[in-house]
Fold this protein.
Amino acid sequence: MKQDILLRIQSIISNQGLDEAEMMQQIKNLVYEFEIKDRLIKESRPIVDLVKENLVTVQSDELSKDLIRTGFSDLDFSIGGLSFGEFVVIGGRPSMGKTQFLVSLVLNISTTVPVLYFTFDLSETLLTNRFISALSGVAINKLIQNSLDPTDSTRLLHVEKEMGKHKILINDSSNSSISSLKSQCLKHIQEDGVKIIIVDFLQMMSSNRYRNSRELEISYISRELKNIAKDNNVCVIASSQLSRAVESRGGNKRPQLSDLRESGAIEQDADKVIFIHRPEYYGFLEDEEGNNLSGVAEILIAKNRNGRVDDIKLLVDKDFTRFRDFEQLKREFSISSCRLDEIDNTPY
């Protein structure tokens, strides 16, 4: 092993295409890799032992320790939850709400497990404002422009205390290389017990390999994200841009797996591919049955390696602060039985 380390360090140092920062990052990444290598090596086991353990789990009423609920009831019903060891891709065209969906998802799960959020699109300040907006219900533009009214100020009073219940780490490093991300992941998995890793978004990442082919580069990054999830028993969730083919498509303009931008490897590597689609963005205000689509986001489960594909609906409020269960719409407009009695007894 010692000789192997020396050879790989020499290979990194002799690479003329690396600057000093990238060189140091790769060496650091190599150290972390060898630190956990022994821990990742697993012995072969008899299947009869594995079957015995699995039967105990599936026959139990308790939620599997390797499964995390998303906090969206319809989504959890369809996919069961997020599994450790999975690579999940959240795709959508611009303005569909990928980041805000991730913010809502992280707030739902981060009271249970630690989450590491890599933001390559927004600064840590702008992303933090997204979390404040989601917790308080105050519109994001009011937070950015410091144009709060008294009601908004009241809503912000308990945000800091509420955020203390969540285990979230944010990284907005300008170093978007996969080697740097991998190094940070291993560090926080080891030191902070991180179990969910968010990458927002995949196409803003880079590597020192395949610089002459963006498709091969994205394929390599996608495979590395999958390896991080599998090797460390964590769930990696990456947002992804979609090609412009969606815009030129007729009909309802729903995205398809072939729309994943720059590499078919993303579709191949991902255990789950989930698209976010807002019909009202394209001018569709009613569905085929005449139901109102204002504030409705369609969550399209296009690939699910361990279950079924499905379409569900979530709600997005007018200020786009947070995604909510679609069932909340029914509860908000439902009338209790006692109120029905009052209506029946009201004289005309």
Notes: DSSP finds 15 helices and eleven strands in the chain. Residues 85 and 230 are 4 Å apart (CA to CA).
